[in-house]
């Protein structure tokens, strides 16, 4: 096989049909001569997900467009268990890619409701034609979308792993056979966290190794449910994964210095600024009550000075409130060091960060209320530079563990 | 008559001297055993304290919340306290062994009971320690979950969970020690039952309307508002 596209599913009957058809069109349109296969590991869907995939026919495409298949387009669907497990789904896709000797492999999430054929080309081409090992997506986002990524995950990953990869947590990405074999050998998903944040583990493994990374612009990303009431699971998937990666990769991140730009296909960032309804006051209140209620927990995680500064800003009024970049970076680094030292249960450390993150988000929203896309980018860049500048602070905390 | 009295007294004094002469070596043996016991107990105390410090037992105790309780009771650190317990248990054991050498009738049974009681004491200590660890873990988990879910009174909820677990643990420890088993069990059942009944009545009758409003606001309207207002973190 030349190309393999993996579509891990679990109860995605509503969207998976269109996703698979978009993949098929993308493969026939942009890779008509290649030997391709779509692999669908399913986590025991209770709806008609697998039936929808099985029913998707090449004839439907031929009726609606001028596409003709020069080769058989295989589509394999398999159930790996009764419960969804991202790491098992990914391992299934990796194993299939290795068995079939696929030269390039892409993962597409059926949760995305606007997958287009171009996505397949944008993801696979740099790996298949230009020898990249990992290609992650860039999306057109609202300036207040993906704030956890922009305020913590991207700046901290960039500072520590010295690579400016904008979407370290990607549910759509492409990778080479070389990286696929490395991931299978390393069993990256087995390093704690119980299979949470598998996608991010892939990115971090590639960043920590000698792999060629690239980014590609895919356009707007839409999900069925864009609610953020699941902040803590999102933090476990990203921040927890990042923190847990620091111990095995200490030799890599402790010796990195200057950050490297990553080759990018298309726009590096595209922020929209249309007004949206955001309840800022609620974030402010959640920060204040969180700092007050969690004092005994924060005492065991943060240094007395940082805790005192955090408690100090919690007393400020809504208008005066500012969670500075420097204080936020120190907070994040102290959480990372405490996670490493396991001062308390590691999952509790991640949960305790959520109220403080809300305070940082409140400041971000307040400062960028009327900001243009460029100004928001400048603010994120300033935060990234603060993370890079204070990296020795994390090293000091790390080495002072005994 | 007088001679008889003097004779009896002489006899008694001779008997006392004979008994004392008979007891003296045993008394010396007891003192030697006690002294040897002190040396061994002290050495064990130092060893246990060293091992606990290397194993960062105080940190574990901090995490378990045991240090907080000890501080409130003006007691030393957990590792110090445990090493002192080891010292006293070992030394007391040696003293009792020494007393056994004296051959005092009736005391031997109590000494045997003491040695049979030791395992129960250690099991009770084990239950208390790990009970405190569990109480601290679950109360902290509840506190974090309540804070992140923006629930009212997360501190109260965490305290309630900690208290319930501590009551459970203390009951189990007393049961293990065999101290006032029935009283403790009945007191626990009454206290726990009263708490649950109180909550049921408070929510079921007294605060029916309030509970209804709270639940509606919490799970219907507020959730919808939140979904509209919040931003995607990823």
Describe, in short, the structure shown.
The complex is a heterodimer of chains A (402) and B (234). Chain A has 402 residues and is α/β, with parallel strands linked by helices.
Question: What key phrases describe this protein's structure?
Answer:
heterodimer; A: alpha/beta; 9-stranded mixed β-sheet; 9 strands; B: 234 residues; mainly alpha; elongated
Class from helix and strand fractions of chain A = alpha/beta
Average pLDDT, all residues of chain B: 81
Separate helix tally of chain A: 17
Q: Please state roughly what percent of the residues of chain B sit in beta strands, choosing from under 5%, 5-15%, 15-25%, 25-35%, 35-45% or over 45%.
A: under 5%
| Helix amount of chain A | 40-55%
Q: Could you name the ranges of chain A where pLDDT drops below 50 across 5 or more consecutive residues?
A: none
Spatial gap, N to C terminus of chain B? 112 Å
Poorly predicted tracts of residues of chain B: none
The gyration radius over C-alpha positions of chain A equals: 22 Å
Describe the main β-sheet of chain A briefly.
9 strands, mixed
Question: Terminal Cα separation of chain A, in Å?
Answer: 52 Å
Helix percentage range of chain B: over 70%
Strand-residue proportion of chain A: 5-15%
Structure description:
The complex is a heterodimer of chains A (402) and B (234). Chain A is of the alpha/beta class. Chain A contains 17 helices and nine strands. Helix content of chain A is 53%, strand content 12%. In chain A, helix 1 links the parallel strand 1 (3-6) and strand 2. The longest helix of chain A has 22 residues, at 346-367. The model of chain B has no long low-confidence stretch (mean pLDDT 81). Chain B contains eight helices and no strands. The longest helix of chain B has 53 residues, at 2-54. Chain B starts with a helix and ends in a 5-residue tail after the last helix. Chain B has helices spanning 2-54, 57-64, 66-72, 78-101, 107-148, 154-177, 181-206, 208-229. At the A-B interface, helix 6, helix 9, helix 11 and helix 15 of A face helix 2, helix 5 and helix 8 of B.
